[in-house]
């Protein structure tokens, strides 16, 4: 049914977001510019609308007011996790994504999905920007 398919979709999107957030923090810590990361991602098989849009928001430091509030993704992942529990299906990746979104929502309750990157960046002590600071 439609709700089940949506739960599957949101599980996948949550995983894509979370992987993007982690890759962004890793690139920042390594000194790679956000533009270089976006160029590589968007022209590789990893590039897709979800990943490219998230990375654009991250490198432009747009963490609020982008129309993708963290509460919605958190709610959707909660539904996905509940469905997995009800059906006895382990959702390892969605579970990890859920924890990343939970951390983002706890720290920045008014933020959009990409604000989860800020939480990871704060842990590693580096921020990803479009250009590397001189």
**What is the annotated CATH architecture?**
Orthogonal Bundle
Q: Helices and strands: which structural class?
A: mainly alpha
- The CATH class is identified as Mainly Alpha
Helix content: 55-70%
Q: How would you characterize the overall build of this protein?
A:
- With 134 residues, the protein is mainly alpha-helical.
- The chain has one domain (2-124): Orthogonal Bundle (N-(1-d-carboxylethyl)-l-norvaline Dehydrogenase, domain 2), CATH 1.10.1040.
- It has six helices and no strands.
- The longest helix is centred in the first third of the chain and has 29 residues, at 2-30.
Key phrases:
134 residues; mainly alpha; N-(1-d-carboxylethyl)-l-norvaline Dehydrogenase, domain 2; globular
Question: What does the secondary structure layout of this molecule look like, with pairings?
Answer:
Layout: H1 2-30, H2 34-42, H3 49-59, H4 70-87, H5 92-107, H6 115-124
Helix pairs in contact: 1-3, 1-4, 1-5, 1-6, 2-3, 4-5, 5-6
Describe what is shown at a glance.
With 134 residues, this protein is mostly helical.
């Amino acid at each position: 049914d439609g709700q089940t398919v949506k739960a599957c979709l949101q599980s996948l999107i949550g995983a894509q977001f979370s992987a993007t957030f982690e890759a962004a923090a890793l690139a920042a810590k390594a000194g790679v510019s956000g533009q270089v990361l976006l160029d590589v991602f968007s022209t590789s098989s990893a590039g897709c609308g979800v990943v490219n849009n998230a990375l654009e928001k991250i490198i432009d430091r747009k963490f609020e007011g982008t129309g993708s509030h963290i509460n919605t993704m958190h709610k959707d992942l909660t539904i996905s996790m509940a469905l997995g529990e009800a059906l006895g299906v382990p959702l390892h990746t969605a579970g990890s994504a859920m924890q990343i979104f939970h951390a983002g929502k706890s720290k920045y309750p008014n933020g959009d999905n990409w604000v989860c990157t800020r939480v990871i960046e704060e842990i590693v002590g580096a921020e990803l920007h479009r250009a590397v600071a001189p």
